[in-house]
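Working notes for the structural subgroup meeting. M.R. asked for a predicted model of this chain before we commit to crystallization trials. I am recording the input and output together here so anyone reviewing the notebook later can reproduce the run.

Input as submitted:
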Amino acid sequence: MPGDVLIGIDAGTSVIKAVAFDLRGAQIASSSVPNRLQSNSDGSATQDMTRTWADCAAALRGLAEKVPSLAERTAAISVTAQGDGTWLVGRDNQPVTDAWLWLDARAAPTVEKLASGPLSRARFEATGTGLNACQQGSQMAHMERVAPGLLDAAEVALHCKDWLYLCLTGVRATDPSEASFTFGNFRTRCYDDVVIEALGLSDRRRLLPEIVEGTQLTHPLSGAAAAETGLKAGTPVCLAYVDMVMTALGAGDCGGSREAACSIVGSTGVHMRAVTNAAVHLNAEGTGYVMALPIPGMVVQAQTNMAATLNLDWILGIAAELLESAGRQVTHADLLARIDAWLEASSPGQVVYHPYISEAGERGPFVNSQARAGFVGLSANHRYADLVRAVVEGLGMALRDCYLAMGGLPSELRLSGGAARSPGLRAILAACVGASVRVSSREEAGAAGAAMMAAVAIGAYPDMHACIADWVTPLLGTPKSPDPALVDVYRRLFPAFQSSRVGLSPAWSLLAAARQNTAT
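Returned structure, recorded in token form:
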């Protein structure tokens, strides 16, 4: 049947996925291609823009190998991707340089300077988003200070999904979510002069692209892109919102209980709640994100941890190295399968762990590039199982910390990401926030969210609420209430987590200075 397939593209930092859905949200097939990045000791993290597009095209060709007559059957294509970062495009739509990713830390000194500026709070009040080195505004401000030639050579500043949209359609544009949390106002979904001035980029405003609402406007797949992807020229292409918003949409942050929240506990941790513009809570610390949803008057408020299950990878990696040194080989999967047993063998709430294992520090619910992970309260009686439990509890404490910074704990938590597969881990996360937990069976939430926008854009649904009723709600599992005794344990543990986190801040600075002196 012609026009019975929607393609959602989700270009992550490490993997680009192309996923086919039918018009009612059932996943048909998926294809993925590894994405590549380069990181260096100077804090840079970059991607080859040309290769990223080539990998996206390869993922689409791979999807065609799995879905018969894909080109003829595709009703629309939609693209989302990793957020933040800076993808500069110059003459003839060619990259100016490799893209600066959200992992790039080079703008940290500029962020410190901007954060102390007279318009810093006004910028936050408009965007709802804390300033950090991940963001395009910070990165462009840093380029202006140290490498203005990059901006001189650019004709437009895009994000990853915008770059792929340009490659697919030849149109330079961005979406309301990234436009407003970077350079605009989440209430109007337009660029804001005060925000741009606060970033010191008034003279670079020409680089900001047109803002396009993907549920209302699409552009046709170009002939050049059709030749590279194997799809049909003229197929409608939708510019979706940033990947966090699309994942929240696909995983169930919208629909059902208005108090529901959604956490994606993967390599990083993303904690979100869908609210009206009027219900946004802007904290005193000026942290977090407010990102427009493809629903009028609705936004996703988010706090993001730099590292979530990366902390588990670290503690399990230590065990693997010790066993390997003793002549026993184990896989990461072997150790993951042991987590629930280690949780059963340990007592809750005995040790505090701060899950700031990322070399970039932390950005939610506080911003500190020098923050580092650590245990508080160890004694000679603690064993490896206690450390594993403390790391898992640390993820839950960080999750609680983030939701409190957004105004309060949810009554229902919808989980997505690798951590949602572990019953023991789900139970701890539920108890840490005192909320019932539901797990979505949606495999590719980000790509699904993007495809949902395309479904509305082509008229398969009259609005996003109708689409959610078919694509999202039926896939949510039964709510599971937390253990009341465990809720009480973690309610009493959290003050120790929070106060030690605040108290350790001077130590992190001293440690960073000591390491720098040692390195030199």
